[in-house]
Structures are given as C-alpha cells and as structure tokens.
Protein 1
Amino acid sequence: MTFDWGPPVRIGSNREHKTLTDATVDRLRGDIISGRLKSGAKVKSEDLKGLYGVGTSPIREALFQLASEGLVRADGQRGFRVAELNENELLEITDWRARLEGEALRRSIINGDVNWEANAIAALHRLRGVQTSRDLTRDKAADLWEERHREFHFALYGKCGSPWLLRFCELLIQNGERYRRAFVEYKSIDQSITQEHEAILDAAVKRDHVKAVSILDKHIRHAGELAQKFLEKSLAPKASSAKLKPRRAGRGRTH
Amino acid sequence: MTFDWGPPVRIGSNREHKTLTDATVDRLRGDIISGRLKSGAKVKSEDLKGLYGVGTSPIREALFQLASEGLVRADGQRGFRVAELNENELLEITDWRARLEGEALRRSIINGDVNWEANAIAALHRLRGVQTSRDLTRDKAADLWEERHREFHFALYGKCGSPWLLRFCELLIQNGERYRRAFVEYKSIDQSITQEHEAILDAAVKRDHVKAVSILDKHIRHAGELAQKFLEKSLAPKASSAKLKPRRAGRGRTH
DNA sequence: AGAATAGCAGATTTCGAAATTCGGAGAAGG
DNA sequence: CCTTCTCCGAATTTCGAAATCTGCTATTCT
C-alpha cells in the first residue's frame, strides 16, 4: 500500500512491462546505449513505428523520457536525435561516476547486511558466467555482459540508502556505457577488469570500505581511460574517416 | 551550429516555447512544485486536458518527462500521480544539495570570470527586487520569488563547467523546493536567508571559495531544517487533521 | 452468510489521421 | 550572378476516438 519514496530506480530491461510505452523505453534505450542507434542520428518516429511495431504515442512518450535521461535530444519542432558523444562529456561522466559510485559503495558497505553480501556475490557469479562467452562483439552477448555488469555494480550499491544517489549513478552509468560500446572494441573482457571486480567484492565482503572504494575508483577511471583512448583514435587520426558518425543511420536517402 | 554537450540544463519557465508539450511540461512542473497540485494527488489527463486546454498527447508526454525528473510517478496502467513527499527524502535532498551545490559553487568561483560575477550580482539584485513584496503567500508572488531565487543560485553555479553537475543540482533543487512550498508558511522572507545570500555573493566575488561554500552549506541545511520542522508539525501532531493534503488543490470541483 | 465470479462504469493507453511546421527548390527581382 | 520570396513535399506535432484495462458492485453458488 505504501509507496517507495525517492525517484524510481530502474535499470535496463525490467521483467514485466505493463505498458507498451515502458517496453518501448527499454528497447529504445537499449538500442541507443548499445550503439545500434548511432550518436547524433536522427530518430524518425515513422521509422521506429515500423521497426518496433507500435503507434506514434508510445514512441513519442518513450522519446521524452529518454530525453530526460540524456540519451536523446529534443530539437525544437524538428524531432529528436540521439545525443552526441564527445570527449569532454566522457571525462565528466567518468569523474562523477568515480565520486558518486564510490560514495554509494562506501555507504552500502557500512549499511549492508548478509543478504546484501549474498546478492553481490551472486551477481558477480552471474557476471563470471557470461565472461566465458567467446564472442562478445555480437550484440546479444555484449548486451548480456553489460547487463550483468550493471547488475553487479548495482548489487554493490543497493544498500547505500539513498534513492537519489542511486538514480544519479544509474544515469551516469547509462550514459557512460555508450562510450564504451561506441568506441571500445573488446573481443574478450580485459583480464584486469575481471580482477578488479573480484577485488572490489572481496574488500566489500570484508567490510574494508576504504580499500573497496579505492579499487572501485581505479576500476571506473580505468574504464574511462580505455574508452577515451579509443575515442581519440576514432576522432583524431585519419581525417579520411573524419565523417565517422556515418550517415548510414537514417535510411532515408541512400546517396 | 554546434550542439551544447551534456544534458540539457533548463530551469522552470523558458522564454520561448516551440512546442505545446514544452509549455505543458513547464506549466505542470510549476503546478506541482508550487503545491497547486498536492503530493500524492491523482493526475487525470482528462482533467488537465480541460484545465490546460490541450489534447491528450502533450499532457501525456509532459507527464513522462516529469516522471523522469521525480515529480510524478507512473503507476502501471493506473495512470499518474504527483510524487509523495516524505521526511526521509527531504533529508536526503538537503544533504545532496549541500554537497553538490557546494562543489558547483567552488568550481564556479575558481573558473568564473568577470561576466560570471556580473550575472550573479545582477541575479541577486533582481531577487532583492521581489523581496520587498508584501504578500509572498500569493501564488504569483511566491512563484516569482522562487524563480528569482533559483536564478540566483544558478547564476552562482553557472561556471562550474559540468553540465551533469548542473543537471543534478537542478533536479535536487526542483524536488527540494516542493517541500518548502508545501510546508513552510512564509509570510515574508526570513531575514537570515537574505543575509546568507548577500554573504555568499560577497565571498564569491572575493573568490573566497572556502568561505562561500561554507555559507552555502549552512544556507541549504538551514532551509532544509526549516522545511523539516514544518513537515513534522504537519504530519505528527493532531491526528485530527490526519488527512492533511487538504482537498483545496484542484480548483475544478469546488463541490 | 461468506466467497467467488461476472458485469459495468470510469480511466487509461493506443492508434491513425488531420493540422502545423520546417527546409529546400525554384522563380522573381536587384 | 547573387539575394529574396514563394511554394511544395516531408516530417512532426496534435487531436479525438477506439480499444484495453482496472476496480467496484451486484449476483450467484456453496
């Protein structure tokens, strides 16, 4: 009967979709974060209507929601486009992720009970499970790894006791993930990333929040630098491919 | 020609409304923050359609946007309601406001140029201008004071250099303002509040960020405690008025 | 009488089409 | 030849009605 307070904290795909709009939000969000919809691409509701098989309203409603989350920009009465990626924002997101997620982890370690530990352990185990997948470049596999990865992090932060903090982390993680998936070509997961996860969980379960937060900080900045390296490489070097963000997004006028 | 990066940072009422939906968002947000739509109240699109004189779509799109901002909750297929206020959230918002706005102010003082100073001074001057209004309980006057107040704070934070930080501050301020306006019965502005504004601006212009941030911190926690005091008084004491959230909200059916 | 089910009225969600708006192509004028 | 204005097609926004869903009420069965 009593409502949860604080902003709704919901990650990625929820099991039950009561509403067509909800389903569309998740699907669209997934397509943007994963990079299937490219940075800066125009989003034509007409196209999505066909693609997702829903009417105008759910798509439009989803678009407005994602605009508030920073994944999409509403452009006057000129429709919507996928938010542009840029290096400054990556830096900013990485920095705030490190700060806020660090705080969330610290508080969770202080507040967390055995159940919290169990959830985190379970989440890391599930993450290990998809780790072994050979081919993470395939959409399906990458989606799955990222989902488990998010779940692990949020299992860690779950007991921070602050819905707003969780919401902020969620927004940052979501937007940050776009950079990894847009630029980092990971065939298989870097071993050091995996080790960091283990180390964070270990310190967390031992209630050593100083150590845990310190590793998490390194983990996040590490990921940020990796993405940044690729991003620079993509933007700077060969002016030939300068027009990355290839037009191939909108399928309107080929040629 | 080039897009601003980072999430869109827009406060309250924007000058130009290109789209009916945009106008509806601002209007609805105003009605929620000001308390004209009460905490927990059901939001019937049918009612708003009549009240605002627009069709289903703009209202629905606005509702989804506000849901992402935390002012409204979307409830399965059971429609929307104004987000509930509660004491825990007030505490949380106050704490995060102090932290994040403090950081925003610190960075702005470090980055800010003469123009930034000028804007802040001008904003405070405009705030002083409405300060003299006799009757701040009237919607119009309170709306104006709050708008100027927000503008002053944001003028201060404007040079923090971090769109995400600004966005977070914006969300917190918005949601925090609801508590003041729901519970604090301010006939005239407390003198100490006014003095704090002056002191913050003074320290900011003198580039003393330690002092400025310290006063800001006090300012925010001060406002939080004030709201909390009233909130407790409203919730706890007389079970008689247990059904606070008096009906007088919607001016639709004066029965 | 109590519990469970069917039916109904009120709301909400979803659709498809009408009305606006944008941006460019082409004509007219300098 | 360049600029400005007008008109047209494409896309977006907005509306209003049809389809669904929810929660309550009345009815029926045990």
Note: Residues 44-46, 56, 60, 77-79 of chain B lie near DNA strand C (CB under 10 Å from a C1').
Protein 2
Amino acid sequence: MLALVDTCQATATARGRLCACLEPPALGRLRAIAADERLAAGEVLFAPGQPAQSLYGVRQGAVMLVRTLGDGRRQVLSFLFPGDVFGFEPDAVHSCSAIALRRSGFCRFPLAGLDEDLQLAVRLHAVACACLAEGLEHMLRLGRMTAAERVAGFFYRLWVRLDRPAELHLPMRLLDVADHLGLRMETVCRHLAALRRAGVVGPLGPDGDLPVLDPEALRRR
Amino acid sequence: MLALVDTCQATATARGRLCACLEPPALGRLRAIAADERLAAGEVLFAPGQPAQSLYGVRQGAVMLVRTLGDGRRQVLSFLFPGDVFGFEPDAVHSCSAIALRRSGFCRFPLAGLDEDLQLAVRLHAVACACLAEGLEHMLRLGRMTAAERVAGFFYRLWVRLDRPAELHLPMRLLDVADHLGLRMETVCRHLAALRRAGVVGPLGPDGDLPVLDPEALRRR
DNA sequence: CGATACATTGAGGAGGGTCAATCCGGGTGG
DNA sequence: CCACCCGGATTGACCCTCCTCAATGTATCG
C-alpha cells in the first residue's frame, strides 16, 4: 500500500497533491487507508446519484468529470491527470460522473479515514481550495473569452500540464474538448485548423497526437 | 465577540455556514478568533494580489467576487449573502476582488486560527466543497445554457436564496448580473423585459426592486 | 436645472451554432 | 486481402443568438 501513495508523490504537481507536505503520522494514515483502483478506457468510476464515500487521486491515465443535462447537453467540468485529486462533494452523493479517458489507475481514499487527522484535514482543505481556484479560472474562460482564446488556451494549459512535450497525446475526443470549453465540436475543430494553418500546431494524428510547434503563440492566445 | 458568530448562525443557510455543526470546543475557538468588519456600498474588502490571511463570513449585506482581465473584461464569480463564506485561496494571495454591493458586515476569521482544531478543519473543508459545487454548477450554466435560461435561472436562484420574497431587492446592477452570466448588460435587460412582458416579473424599480409574480415560470426557465 | 448613472430599446453585424456532406483510419468479416 | 462499416475529424453553407453601437428614457443629486 506504501507504493500507492508514493507513486502519487512522484508524478504529482505539488498543488493538487493530497500527500504533499505531510509529515509521517498523517502520511502513514493516508497510506493505511489508500486503496487501489483501475479502470479501462471509457469506464465510469462514479456516476451522478451514487453515494460519494471516497476521494480519488489519479495515479496514471486521464479522467474527465462530466455533468449531463436531461436534454443531452454536456459540460465537461475538468480533465484530470496523474496527481490530481477529485471526488469532492458537499453532499454524500456524486453530482457528476467520472469517466476514464484511457486505461487509468487511482488511489482511493475513503472519506471516513480522512476526517481524523488534523494535518490531513488541513491538507485536504488546501487541495479543495486549489480545485476551487481552478474552477473559478475556468468560469472566467467560459464567461468572457472568445472561442479562439478558449481553444488556444486549452491546448496551452494541457501542454504545460503534460510537461511541455513536443507532441501532445490527447486522451480525449474533440467533442469532449468542446463540451469542456462550452463550444461545438465543429468550432473547436475550426479554430484548431486555424492554429494549424498559422503553424502553431501540427496536424492532429488519428490517435490524438498533436505536435506543438509554437507554444509561445498558443500562450499568447 | 460571541454575538458575531451567533449572528452568522441565525441568518445562514446550513450548507455554506462555517459555524454549523460545531461542538463547544471548536465553536469556542471560532468565536475567539472572529473579528468584526464593516464596509459601505462599493467598498473593496480585498483585491487581487493582496495577501490572503483570512476567511470571511457575510453577516449582513451583499458582496460580489470579481475577476478582471487586463482589457476590462470582467467575470463576477459569485454574489454572496448573509451566511456565505468566502476568501478561499490556494496560494496566500487573493486572486479576485471582493466588493460590497451595499453596506455590509462580515466575520473575519484569520487563517492562522483555523488550522488548529480538527473539527473546525473538517467543517472548513465541507464549506469549501460547497463552494466548489456551486462553482461547478455555474460552469454548466456558462458553458451550456442559453441567455434566456441564464437570466431566468439567475433570478430564480436569487429569489430562493433571499427567502422567496414577493419583491426581490437587487443589490447589484444589471451590468454585474451580465458579468456574472457571461452576457452583455443589454442582453440581460432584453431577456428581463421579455419576462416582464410574459408576466413573470414586474417592472424593475429604480432602486432595484423586482416583483416576482410567477416564480414557477422562472424556475421552468 | 443640468449632470450623472444606469436602464431600456432599436438597428445592424459577427461569432458561433446547426445541418449536412465528405474524409480518413482502423477494425471486422467475408 | 479487400470491401465494408463505423466513429470521429473536417469542411462548407446557412442561420440565429447574442454582441455592438447608438439613441433615448428615467431617477437621483448637486
């Protein structure tokens, strides 16, 4: 079980990481309660209405959190990568679904075990704050940025999050990106095509490979 | 100092309330560290870049949290009313401004005092989760709802939040509403006019009074 | 009585949505 | 091995919602 938490530690960004900044007692508790979980691409970790009894940390792979309206409208709340923690709910019930975008592995932390150590609780709050800030940031994008800005900004942030690779391996479909950015798939595709014509990115490969040629131009929007 | 926290308790919704569900020791600590703060309409409680050293609970009045882009684009992240808690930041610096919409009073809770009691820390996390969920909800609106839905939904939620009064007293300008909903003021005004023509709301008074004639129609969108 | 601040309304334009056709690569089954 | 199919990406044409700009209304305040 030790390896579970340590894997998180190795791959995570410091900010969203649950096990960061913990001293032996809290870390020990975290290790004691962590459970392993694995999902294949497309599988659902939890769905709306299900009881929310754990937090999850992504170890490998990629996940998205999705809310769906009755009439089929979808909002992808976030894409999550190794080190990210998710599953926060104000009530004891999930309000969105978590869907693996590829074969993924998770640390599962039962909520019951998280409320009994002060340092752990404080850390938990810090991680929740990071999620909250992330959400507010995205609110600004959805409310006040143009389609071009959203698309370029999205790929820039993804590129940074994935350690600035020469080639981005998108685990999600363009439809998912569109549902994240509050746009239509066609709109995302068009703006991506514009970036390609401008020499900012290369052609999108069939397996989701996207060469990033000019990250600076992406950042500038 | 006792009265401060108790005032929160009296007026707050259970969910976002910091002092809810606390037993004497934690409640005592909360009371011990709570400080009073008052602002006139339009005054700024904190601004981006300022050190974030406290959480705040609204006691009376109304506040909005605002993020502004360099080019003047604004996103109102949330409107806050008695009982709401705000000031969560992942870093020790504020990322948005808090602006009083009218004469308002706050409980100020220094962060330093919040990290030392387990029950308090757990409660803090619960409140942060509630904020987070609120944010995700709004993300869905910004990303996937039409202007008409956003406007109607906004006034419906405000009406519920303010205890379903016959007449809504809007503390904010239409411009603020627009910047909250990712719309233009004119668009908000037009859809509000449509609701008026449909007999769902009455005419908007000069001091922000808005009779709510058919809440059910508002809820239906 | 102007001046200010905000709400309201109209006319016109643009950005993004909608619908539909086509492409493309990979899998499947004959 | 190849024809077929399928999911997703791409592109085009058209349309509608919302934005933009501008004029007008209205209440408050000096």
Note: The two ends of chain A are 43 Å apart (CA to CA).
